Amino acid sequence: MDYRVHYTVLRRTSLFRSMSDADLDVLMGCFSPHIRRYRRGELLLMAGYETRELGIVLEGEITAAKPMPDGSAVVMTHMGPAGVFADVLAGGRSKSPVTVTAALPCRVLYLPCEALLRPCGAMHKAHLQLLHNWLETISSKYFALDRRLELLCCKSLRGRICLWLLEQREQAGADTFTTPLTRAELASYLNCDRSALCRELSRMQEEGLVQLFRRSFKLPDPEKLRHAM
């Protein structure tokens, strides 16, 4: 299989960043990953099951949601091309706490975890770099989970919204940014009712704290938003 058509996306991931075509050729040859297509709504990974593969989104979008005892689900993350999932699970025997589904038709590349953990006898430099990047990826997700916990600890809905908006601004590096989340998915992410979220966003827009453009947001005065938390 010719993987080279996907190298541009692979280099955007935290796992393969800055790697040359030659490095990727070596790794693809060692791992022989497989690629799968999914229709919108199709299941990639179900909560409660183990996985021995790490997934990379090449095209489309996926959503990971944690099922709750009452039958609802809380959105944990939404990923587009270059998103990496199951990277924490694949290295152990833990069962997935989330269900991963295709938010849009997508194509995913899977790397066998066994091949990542046990490099071939040649001990290629690219493989050692990949292991280093993998550890950094897991570390980054740990701190992302800590930020999510901080967000959910905010007692007021406005506080959660403000914290989320400021975090998105920091990630985008701009006062205007777009989120892949629908209002329903954002409400799930913030652990609130969709109607309550829409009402609060409307109030915040009236007060000049934020400007809304469907899935895009503009923060006219980030400091004012910070003090509104």
Q: Brief overview, please?
A:
GO terms for molecular function: DNA binding; DNA-binding transcription factor activity. With 229 residues, the chain is of the alpha+beta class. The chain is 40% helix and 22% strand.
Sheet having the most strands: 4 strands, antiparallel
Net shape = elongated
Instruction: Quickly count the domains.
Output: 2
Provide the gyration radius in Å: 19 Å
What structural class do you assign from the helix and strand content? alpha+beta
Report how far the terminal alpha carbons are from each other: 51 Å
**Relative helix content:** 40-55%
> What is the CATH class name of the largest domain?
Mainly Beta
Domain HTH crp-type: 155-223
Organism: Candidatus Gemmiger avistercoris
Keywords: DNA-binding, Transcription, Transcription regulation
Protein name: Crp/Fnr family transcriptional regulator
